[in-house]
Write a structure and sequence with these properties.
By secondary structure, the chain is mainly alpha-helical. It is built from 20 helices and 2 strands. A two-stranded antiparallel ribbon has the order 1-2.
Length: 471
């Protein structure tokens, strides 16, 4: 009975979505229900995802499906406080699940080409043997917050005032553009914690890094830290305790942490110290899924030919390449990045802040319905990343792919320009690693057992097991 319930409860949740929404918003004058054919499409996408074998691919696909339902809840929570807000979610939702279906089918196809999973032998010893690189990464958060404090004069998140209007206008100091390195610092600290070295100190420092990454009131870097922790911790746990089964606990803990942090950060940015009102934000206003609401609204308000000055390729090119290289080829980095969705939608809505509508929206407004085909190469690269997470060549590679995986998860409700901007930062870190290795002639920054053991001796093939997802 429990097995059947576990297997079919997602379909039951989808089937009872409208009654659940009606119950949650029974005091509202108007409720937006999900059309039946959209629910059928959602159930079909979920069913298709059951054929995904790699657990990281599966986790990502399920999150993207769940994001739709968060969006529906957010739309209804807006109507409670703004009765003039009204959207028809049908067509945009069909487009959303069309993209997801293309993505999932492509994912299954690419997985069928994967080689058998290679695993590290139980009891394998490994070390990080590049102290210079370690030191630079670990010291960075401290230098970052000192630089920010000197530039701003205070820590915004501790001000106790509403700083939403000012948070995008502060000069955060010279190191602010490299804030993304805090993710590396966090995962490196987790790595040393896993090795049982100065565990209390590492816990304190890991929490300090999470605080530092959100001191400006922005949550993106903090969420990348937490999401990257899932595959990073999963692999290290299997390496150190190979007989232990995959656990749901880290996912539940991270999901809970994200919920709590999301609400808390929103309330703190508004200068709200009332705990009851914090809970009210979560229960009544449902802050999750706002990007899906903006996608649906944009889909109704605009068309793929009416959005002015939007260029998917050029804006992402501007986000990825540095200004020096772009200037050499006659491009202006700032002008290119302002062709991205956040800036274009900000102007279209005539507001002061950028708007995120997610990758499905960006592809639609760039290429129309044919944008769904871009889900095929996206599935290819996500599958490659998920495979690397099961058989990394080094600790540094594990860190890189864990971060990349987190970026892929959030692209469904984020901006492609942010994704490519972070990707360029990852390349900078990689090149810096190569530079440090070359200067100090250090051993490979990654996994090794002991002198004399070659890299191809670290691994051995296990017999293929029947598909059984850990998530």
């Amino acid at each position: 009975m429990i097995t059947l319930l576990k297997k079919y409860y997602p379909y039951l949740l989808i089937a009872f979505m409208n009654p659940i929404v009606g119950f949650l918003f029974q005091r509202s004058n108007k409720v937006i229900y999900t059309p039946t054919d959209v629910l059928v499409f959602a159930a079909f996408c979920y069913w298709a995802s059951t054929f995904v074998s790699n657990k990281y691919n599966l986790l990502l696909a399920r999150f993207w499906i769940s994001f739709f339902f968060l969006g529906v809840l957010n739309i209804n929570s807006v109507i409670v406080y703004d009765t003039t807000f009204n959207v028809n979610i049908h067509d945009a939702s069909i487009l959303y699940f069309l993209n997801l279906m293309v993505f999932i089918i492509a994912l299954i196809g690419f997985e069928s080409k994967n080689k058998p999973v290679i695993r590290i032998k139980p009891g394998n010893n490994f070390h990080l043997n590049n102290p210079v690189l370690n030191l630079v990464i670990l010291v960075f958060p401290v230098l970052f917050i000192i630089s920010l404090y000197k530039a701003v004069g205070f820590l915004p998140i501790l001000s106790g005032d509403n700083f939403v209007d000012e948070m995008y206008n502060y000069d955060y100091g010279a190191l602010y553009g490299y804030k993304f390195i805090c993710v590396y610092s966090f995962l490196l600290t987790v790595y040393f914690f896993k090795l049982k070295k100065y565990r209390v100190l590492n816990i304190i420092f890991a929490l300090a890094i999470l605080f530092i990454s959100s001191v400006d009131g922005k949550r993106f870097i903090l969420f990348i830290c937490l999401l990257a922790f899932i595959p990073f911790n999963d692999y290290l746990k299997k390496l150190l305790s190979p007989k232990q089964k995959t656990s749901y606990v880290p996912i539940i803990m991270i999901s809970t942490a994200i919920v709590v942090i999301y609400i808390s950060m929103l309330a703190i940015r508004l200068g709200n110290n009332n705990v009851d009102e914090w809970l009210g934000i979560f229960i009544e206003k449902i802050p999750f899924g706002v990007e899906y609401k903006d996608f649906v609204y944009s889909f109704e308000k605009f068309s793929d030919t009416t959005v002015k000055n939007y260029d998917f390729v050029l804006s992402n090119m501007g986000a990825f390449f540095n200004s020096g290289m772009l200037n050499f080829f006659g491009f202006d980095k700032e002008a290119l990045t302002h062709m991205g969705s956040a800036y274009v939608w900000m102007n279209a809505y005539n507001i002061e802040f950028g708007i995120r509508t997610g990758i499905v929206s960006e592809l639609y407004f760039a290429y129309g319905i044919w944008g769904a085909l871009a889900m095929i190469p996206l599935a290819y690269f996500i599958n490659k990343t998920s495979v690397k997470l099961t058989q990394p060549g080094s600790v540094f590679e594990l860190i890189q792919y864990a971060i990349l995986y987190a970026l892929y998860i959030l692209i469904i409700n984020g901006q492609a320009t942010v994704f490519f901007g972070c990707l360029s930062m990852m390349l900078y870190v990689y090149f810096f690693k190569l530079l440090v290795n070359g200067i100090f002639k250090s051993e490979r920054f990654g996994l090794y057992r002991y002198p004399g053991i070659q890299s191809n001796q670290l691994y051995y093939k296990l017999p293929e097991e029947p598909r059984q997802s850990g998530y």
